[in-house]
Amino acid sequence: MSVARAREVMARLRAAGITVHEWPGWESRGNGLTSAYEGLVVHHTASGYGAAFPVLVDGRSDLSGPLCNTSGNTDGSVTLSAAHPANPAGAGSGPSMGPLPRTSLFNNRVWGHEIVYPGNEPMTAAQYRTAAILARVCADVFGYGDIERARAHAETSSEGKWDPGYAPGRT
After folding, report:
1. Whole-angstrom Cα distance, residue 115 to residue 27?
2. pLDDT tens for the 171 residues of the chain, in order
3. Rounded CA separation 42/150 (Å)
4. What does the alpha-carbon distance between residue 72 and residue 123 come to, in Å, rounded to a whole number?
5. Which of the listed residues 2, 17, 19, 102 has the most CB atoms within 10 Å of its CB?
């Protein structure tokens, strides 16, 4: 089911004029959980513009990959890296969950999108446009058309995360 839904999301992005790149192995990559996607959580990488791979796929020493399902590139394109649940969110119990459930394990319930930029300055206009389109697509595919199911990490994090941001502490 995750692969079919990932293909649907990518087809809708392409239909909206977004270039989609596919990271090899995306069809089988995930954290081992069964997907129950209900929405989208958007992050930023806190890395340089365009400087996030392969960590988004392979993970870090403190968090196994994949860290997201898709990433938003500087030129507005999207890279699909995992169809199955990634590790983008941890617990979902932040200050503004919308209709998404509060849970200690949020990763299998949300599609994770990492926008590849530092976060201490704005994302590119192309990244912002793509994130807005992806939010609508994911709301339609996973969230029954409810745009409130597309959230910033700052809204769902109980740890004080502020991404995606444009300056330290500014979402």
Report:
1. 21
2. 699 999 999 999 999 999 999 999 999 999 999 999 999 999 999 999 988 889 999 999 999 999 999 999 999 999 999 999 999 988 899 999 999 999 998 999 999 999 999 999 999 999 999 999 999 999 999 988 999 999 999 999 988 899 999 988 898
3. 8
4. 10
5. 2
- Spell out the alpha helix ranges (H) of the chain: 2-15, 55-58, 125-142, 153-156
* Dihedral, 129, 145, 160, 77 alpha carbons, nearest 10: -30
Q: Write the CA distances from 141 to 67, 71, 81, integer angstroms.
A: 21, 18, 18
Give strand pairing partners of 170: 167
CA distance 88 to 68: 5
Instruction: Name the pTM for this structure.
Output: 0.96
